[in-house]
Amino acid sequence: MSNILTTTRAIPLVNLADYEHGSDAVRQAFVDQLADAFRGIGFVGVTGHGIPKQLIDDFYVAAKKFFAMDTDGKGKYEIPGAAGQRGYTAFGKEKAKQSQVADLKEFFQIGQETINMTTEQRNPDVAEVPEFMTLGRELYRQFEVKGNVLLEAIASYLELPANYFSTYTKDGISILRAIHYPPISSEPASAIRAEQHEDINLITLLVGASAGGLELLNANGEWQEVVPENDEIVINVGDMLQRLTNNHLKSTTHRVVNPPRAEWHKPRLSIPFFLHPRPEMSLDVLASCVTADNPRHYEAITAGGYLDQRLREIGLKK
């Protein structure tokens, strides 16, 4: 594997408004572009998504306020037994599945809330920064809507019913994660901010981070920097969608590297939305994705069974 870093634009760009408001021909062109990106590099940049920039900016400000709290203050929002799926997870808890050392990050996760949830199942409200959860819940809903539009386009490409994914993502266990990478104060033992990994879910939606560092591993074994521009949201295929399509759509390895030493004092904040179905969804590969050239690569498993397996691998579940 090469350590070469290439800096030309790494991922294609599509406009979601073409799919949501375009003619049949324009919609089909969007589907083809999206599929090409997901088959080729597993990532795509999306403009025209309609998520208000003000909402994103305001949530970033609120998240910074939360992470600026002291350790005891943040620790009140850590939920025992939640496997990091709700509330705060302290620095040094999560690692990549192949890594022996924890990533250099802390995070807060906002999960799905449904009408019949008990108080214990809901996300904790942050008394010190009340707008953090108000804005977070709204951003969660917006990401969920736009993520489902993208999954509808993927369903079209796979010649599945338009509602194939939304049937399973309604009340699914998607996660909005605010990740804080604190300033680096001393030479890290061997960890980087986020070691190379693949995402677990169907697709991930990521709004631009407060600093660079995101890199993907391309087909030539080169690391390419991903730099979102303007209002662009970066979307990537997760392992669940790769399994379902029998490796036809690619869940690409990516990482967040440490900044140059001169910038160690700068923290980094990023906001990914991990779009998950309900646990009972079957991830058995689609028959249409099994061919003589591409035989079945995976055993049948449910989304819940797969998530449980992966949370144990990355150290969030014992």
Shape by Cα distribution: globular
User: How are the strands of the largest sheet arranged?
Assistant: 2-3-11-8-13-6-5-4
* Residue-averaged pLDDT: 89
> In the CATH scheme, what's the topology name?
Jelly Rolls
Give the termini distance in whole angstroms.
Answer: 32 Å
* CATH class label: Mainly Beta
The CATH architecture name reads Sandwich
* Binned strand content: 15-25%
What percent of residues adopt helix (DSSP H or I)? 25-40%
Whole-number total of structural domains: 1
| CA gyration radius, whole angstroms | 19 Å
Written description of the protein model:
This protein has helices at 16-21, 24-40, 53-67, 71-75, 130-157, 166-169, 239-244, 303-313; strands spanning 5-6, 13-15, 43-47, 87-89, 106-111, 175-181, 194-197, 203-207, 214-217, 223-225, 233-237, 254-256, 268-275. By secondary structure, it is an alpha+beta fold. The chain has one domain (5-313): Jelly Rolls (Sandwich). An 8-stranded mixed beta sheet has the order 2-3-11-8-13-6-5-4. Strands 1-10-9-12-7 form a 5-stranded mixed beta sheet, with no helix packed on it. A hairpin with a 5-residue loop joins strand 9 and strand 10 (223-225). The protein is globular and about 55 Å long. The two termini are 32 Å apart. 41% of the residues are buried. InterPro entries: DIOX_N, IPNS-like_FE2OG_OXY, IPNS-like_sf, Iron_ascorbate_oxido_reductase, Oxoglu/Fe-dep_dioxygenase_dom. It catalyses: L-arginine + 2-oxoglutarate + O2 = guanidine + L-glutamate 5-semialdehyde + succinate + CO2; 2-oxoglutarate + O2 + 2 H(+) = ethene + 3 CO2 + H2O. Pathway: Alkene biosynthesis; ethylene biosynthesis via 2-oxoglutarate. This is 2-oxoglutarate-dependent ethylene/succinate-forming enzyme. It comes from Neolewinella antarctica.
